[in-house]
Request: fold
Amino acid sequence: MKDKYSHLFLPVTVLVLLIIINLIKGVDYFSITIVNGAFYGNIPNILFGASELVILSIGMTLVTAASQGQDISIGVSATITSAIFVLFVLNAGEVTLLTIVAGFLISCAAGLVLGVFNGTLVSIFKVQPMVATLILLMGGRSIAFMIDGKLSPILANDISNQIGTVIPGVPIQTPIILTALFILIVVVVLKTTNLRLYVESVGINPSAARLNGINPKKIIFLTFLIMGVCTAVAGFIAVNKAGRHDSVNLLKFIMMDAILAVAIGGNSLGGGKFSITGSIIGAYTIEMLNRTLLRLEVEPEAILAFKAVFIMILMVVASPVTRFYSGKVLDKVRTMIGADETVETEFIDGNTSGKKVD
Amino acid sequence: MRLSRQSLSTETHPERRWIRVNSPSAGPKTKLSNSNLLFIIAAVIFVLMYLFAIISFPRSFLQFQTFFDLFNLNAPLIIMTLGLCVVMIVGGIDISIGSVCGLVTMACAVFLESDAGSIPGALLIALAIGIAFGLLQGFLIAYLEIQPFIITLSGLFLAKGLLTSLHKDPINVSMPAFVALRDAKIMIPWLGTQNRLGVFIPCEIKPGVIIVIVLVALIAAFMKWSRVGRNVYAVGGNEQSAMMLGINVKGTKFFAYIICGLTAGIAGFVYIMTTGAGNVGNAAGFEIKAIASAIIGGTLLNGGVGNPLGAPIGTLTLLIINELIRAAGIQSNFQAIISGLLLYLFIVLQSVIMSLRGSKFKLALPLRLLPSRRQSGEKK
Reply:
């Protein structure tokens, strides 16, 4: 039982640490006010701000688990899909709920196309995921720039405004509801299908999975398709939140945050078993971290460096070598105390260079 | 290049048709090594691309100065690509180089503008920052066995964050000694073109180009003839086998990352020597360009295959394509998109070539096209 939830230890610790820091800074951290019939305050703001990040880190978790690497083009993909959405909505003439939904579906299709692009490279051509997605990172913003016609078009209509902020009569901001809905769908899919099992077995050992009748190529491809849909949803939310489409700055450094969320969530960045819950908590933790740093008056530019150091420390703590030695030390301590139980120290396979074991 | 299987199949010894590379008992080596094959392909593509450029825009591309300007303006990129090649051959990747280069330019600019500024000091700072990043990332990747991409991605953001917190606004170096160095040019009197008035203008190159040539020669020689250089190929080819052969795998990886950091530092110094200003946007996006150049230059992503001489070739190919797009007057957005497409094409090409050479089908050359035995004696 304890082992089952040990992966949540890290995100929860960081979360508690951040809450303590925030409470020291100001005691009224958890206060919630009601403005125009909706909740505002630090906690709703974090939930609101992290909505794209949560969605993207769910996709990132799946990609990481199956392909043993990360997708770094997510921000760019979201920019492209949202550019298509904005183009559709603005050209539709009258904006109704139907056009919004149709635009969203079209942007999802675009996300699938981008997923096919990345997935083909990773699964068929066996390129490391990060290098494969680098291609999109390289040209993607220019594509989005050309789609939206260089103008950073403004979405000035009631419906997208409501999607971005609050629907009258509902006390919770709409992005939070959409995120919750998305999480629900993912949970239902993972509970009712074999996706989790397949993804994990492919991530742990692709050749073993193949011998057991799972096609690793298909599964990796599928995770990239799911990632494409995730980017479409995230782009949809982001562009409605902002009210306009800025192809240069929309979700600019989010891949860093999403990878960090996956890592904080206790998932191995080398693939294998994964925990969606951990990633979601990790994503909220990162949003909280961002806001805490801003609250502590750290410069926005320095936040980038701070997070980089943070991710390095996390990686060192979670690295196989550190785990191996800490396991040894723990072992010694236990034998010194005189505990009888045999403690297994497993050396996690050092397959960290992003290559697949054949 | 032609794939002529017939010319070899008519040989009297059919068992000698496809000979393993690394088995000395099998007789003369008739198979081209992967590194050389990819390098030759890169060189051929470069020549074709340049010919195409000359045909499309003869007025500009026929001038020698155009060719030298590619070097003059992009020396930092070539230097970075060179270091990246070493890391890619060892089987890793480094995407922090662009940001490290930018950080170096800003640090040098701030230092040179301060009262204590001096050119040797700036050079020392450049090398120190480069080596520091190389040491940090190399240690984490080699000895703690963390994925290189994650570490260098955070290295990228670390350098970017440090760069912006160091100084936000553009800073122009006005130190006289440095301005002299920035404006220094080397004339080549026997090469040049006549302008419309009939005045002969000699070609000029920047000091950075000399650094590029020296570094390319050094690293190529080092990778080809030194023990550590060969270890780099061995580790990139197959880590397990290299370990069993008694090669210090971790040390070799560590070393490759230090070389890469060092070249990023030098590239930063060359960058500020070319532009003379520190700016937040300096060298932004160079890591992607460098990766694309290295891949186009025939360095395999999976490691173990590559020729450092391919780095300048690949960079020049990419630059010529960008110049062609610019000359054709197409939107600048297409540069990024077409660079991305090229990267895609070359990755797919590499993948196809490598799988063709894998087991079923061996790519062989007719005997007369084969390099002599000594030349192909390089491992891999």
